[in-house]
Amino acid sequence: MIKINLIAVGKVKEKYFADGIEEYKKRLQGFCDFKITEVEEENYKKIDEKLILSVKEKEGERIKKFMKGYVIGMAIEGKKYSSEQFAKTLKTLIDKGQNITFIIGGSYGIADGIKEKCDELMSFSDMTFPHTMFRLMLTEQIYRAFGINSGSAYHK
Fold first, then answer.
1. What is the reported pTM?
2. For FRET with 78, which of 39, 87, 106, 110 sits at 20 to 30 Å CA-CA?
């Protein structure tokens, strides 16, 4: 069974997001070995441009050790997919036997060094979303992709 790992900086604090993520994780178990790996978020009181780079680098060091298989970094400058295109991309990777890792960075995104190690960068929108909401959205879209590829009525 294919392995999909979602690496996310920080923890989900809101119960309603956690419940939604857990529901999609449960649904995904029929399609893949889906796992979420949380890495510690940097704490800071006052931030400036220099500190932002430091925060991203520290979080990047924590992310790096979990990057395996085909790595997709979630970044605003990444490629945008429709749900159908995303499903096709996932199917192609799975058909090749690729395990897949998705990365959601911290509040300031993913360090450039981590982005360079990604096989691809992907974006949902030019908009900014709260990280916990985005984690729910990505988990749902992964489930939707499996639904599309299996001909499920869920996508309708």
1. 0.94
2. 39
Backbone angles phi, psi at 99, to 5 degrees: -80, 150
CA within 13 Å, CB half, 155: 17
**CA distances for 23 relative to 3, 26, 54, 92, 136, angstroms:** 18, 5, 35, 25, 10
Task: Please provide the distance, in angstroms rounded to a whole number, between the alpha carbons at the two ends of the chain.
Answer: 26
Distance of CA 125 to the CA centre of its chain: 14
- The two structure tokens encoding residue 47: 């931030």
Contact 110, 73 (CB under 8 A): yes
Q: What is the pLDDT of residues 75-124, one digit of tens each?
A: 999 999 999 999 999 999 999 999 999 999 998 999 999 999 999 999 99
Distance CA 14, CA 16 (A): 6
Measured distance CA(146)–CA(67) in Å, rounded? 22
Return d(Cα 23, Cα 65) in angstroms, integer: 27
Alpha-carbon torsion angle 5, 74, 115, 108, nearest 10: -110
